[in-house]
Amino acid sequence: xxxxxxxxxLGVLGLGAGALLASAPALADPNPLCPVCHAxxxxxxxxxYPKLAGLDPAYLTKQINDFKAGRRTNPVMDEIIKQLPDAxxxxxxxxxxxxxxxxxxxxxxxLAAAGEQIFKHGIAAQAVPACANCHNDDGSGTFRYPxxxxxxxxxxINQLTNxxxxxxxxxxxxxxxxxxxxxDDQIKAVAxxxxxx
Length: 197
Fold this sequence. Notes:
By secondary structure, the protein is an all-alpha fold.
């Protein structure tokens, strides 16, 4: 399947999902602990915590299950996840996946421009593929690769740094192999660009 055909199919599926979500009744997060850090999934003012809005349901479910199983760890989430009943996971995922994420303001336009080159074209000399290859040109992500567009810069830097060091390792090693080839400055640049998408 060509990239163009795949993009068309994903676009049609996305329009269909968008129409369904637009006509669906408003959802609410059944777990009162999640909004403490994640707010409505988009407007959390705490840049250490990710925006969950718009993440693909399959991807978000995997991350929750990885935290529950200890495949992904975080000092805060390790404790909070124990208080999320398995029966509440589908409703929690549906709530955050249905929220609309908005971009952060770009603080450093020159840094973001350097990051755009990495995101769209990769770094051939360092064997770094373009981020867009997996996360889509607009950073919207898929069921396998997370939506990056509009994510907090600080959170993105932390996750890429954790992947680079091996502290995060629940992605079958793919992003670890990519992140380890990036310099700290390149990580900051691509994070600055992504946050503004």
